[in-house]
Amino acid sequence: MLTATEIQKIINQRIESLSFPATPADLYDPIQYILSLGGKRLRPTLTLMACNLFSDEVELAIEPALGIELFHNFTLLHDDIMDKADKRRGHLTVHRKWNENVAILSGDAMQIEAYRHISLTSVANLPRVLARFSQTAIEVCEGQQIDMDFEKRCEVPEEDYLEMIRLKTAVLVAASLQIGAWMGGATEQEAGLLYDFGSSLGLAFQLQDDLLDVYGDAKTFGKNIGGDIVSNKKTFLLILAMNSATGSIKESLLRWIKEPVVNPEEKIKAVTEIYDTLGIGSICKKQIASFHEKAFVAFDKLGLPLSRKQILIDYVSALMQRQT
Amino acid sequence: MLTATEIQKIINQRIESLSFPATPADLYDPIQYILSLGGKRLRPTLTLMACNLFSDEVELAIEPALGIELFHNFTLLHDDIMDKADKRRGHLTVHRKWNENVAILSGDAMQIEAYRHISLTSVANLPRVLARFSQTAIEVCEGQQIDMDFEKRCEVPEEDYLEMIRLKTAVLVAASLQIGAWMGGATEQEAGLLYDFGSSLGLAFQLQDDLLDVYGDAKTFGKNIGGDIVSNKKTFLLILAMNSATGSIKESLLRWIKEPVVNPEEKIKAVTEIYDTLGIGSICKKQIASFHEKAFVAFDKLGLPLSRKQILIDYVSALMQRQT
What is the enzyme's class at the highest EC level (chains A, B) (predicted)? Predict the structure, then answer.
């Protein structure tokens, strides 16, 4: 079996060696650019690890793994246009570095490139991998649309928010694991358990992102602490606070949301204090722990020796403990 | 064998019965909307006709035919954003009726829906249909990028323009025919001849569109005559004129292009007169005839009885003689 480091080395080498035509430059350069910005490569790592649970040949799963990573980066590229984001991983977003038309079209091309790699799946697995990939891709679009719809709403029930992040984030983590399992020769039941594992894990990861934006360690967290607070982003924390605050606390929260930001630090401090008063951090942590546990209930049902499962357990545990 | 009318009835019924979830409405309504605007359904018609050349079961090709039509409509949806077009087939474009974010995301979803139908191709044909579809889709993106690049250039060599429209338009017509042929059981050589036939045909169609914008019959032509002239669109006619005009004619043409449009009718009349003086219409007609001939050189190599080929010949001939 391969270690996490060995798997990530394979993935990074394959991503670096992806080659695109030199022209038209404005179509292909943005694809190379966004791929060069790095990232944890979480999804393809999970695909290869899931494959490795059942087979010693992780190469079996490399093409769908690349397709999934290309698709994920395509969604970042287009989401950044829709969110009018200036930066991605510390660098200019594609629509800022080039322009919006370039970002739209190179994103479209990137989605096609994703399907090209998915299509290189062995014929025996091709129909189910394609069906799962397309179903997942359309769910990710649904999640993004629902997320944008939430921005126009004052209050969002917690279960609606969890369903949104399930679609926008969790299903792709789930599919990454299920597809990897299929490629390694898992049974439908085993692959289904890995899908369930990934779905709960994806929810836990996203809630942890929401939490770290407020309670993360500024030194190690990749983004500025409080960015979501400043931009009024509807995170799980803000939604919990909006739904549980009453009286003067609710009034204060609404005021911070509605008024233009004069002093970002002051706003971050004030809203964090509201979260503290309402115990939002601990409610969020409990929800994360609950998804984490649910993930491992599914994972534990896999009838594989612990020695085969340990690498994946360690990788996921490290991610759950990250402060960045 | 089915007549063109019968084939188009099948296609329209299948497109009308495509059903999408009710929510999120802003993701799926624009897909239903753009499909409801109609159009000739040229590409899926060619797919089924190509299938019908080799098999009496056109149903064999219906899924890839739908996938190709969905993909074509997706490109229109995103191209309209990039071109800042207000109208499409007499109705508001998606980004005008909704907004740009909705147009980007529903377009992304539509591309996934296209792949979903392509993926329903029978397993025996799936790898080559997927490969051809993705190769074609990426070429269409290349064509769109090159087209946008041309807008920034003063002069474009004719061969560069022809290569652009080959990518942007002709390859999808070619792939529609090739894929249909495969689904009907054609040999690789037969399917290849249909690809070549479609490629030349697609070039002829696009040049005819360029020609009809200037010399079409205003009563029957779907758009206003001279629209491309008013907007300085780099059509084959304008490119031919820019490359062949000299002296005072060139100066006059450049003036019409550079000056803001005060009176559109006056501009259309003046530029059309320049085209007349330079004989642009007849050069364009000769080029169309040459592609038409090249198309039928490929088609004639198909060793099929004329009785099987007649429906496709008649359909294509009617399209070539259209004034609309």
Answer: transferase
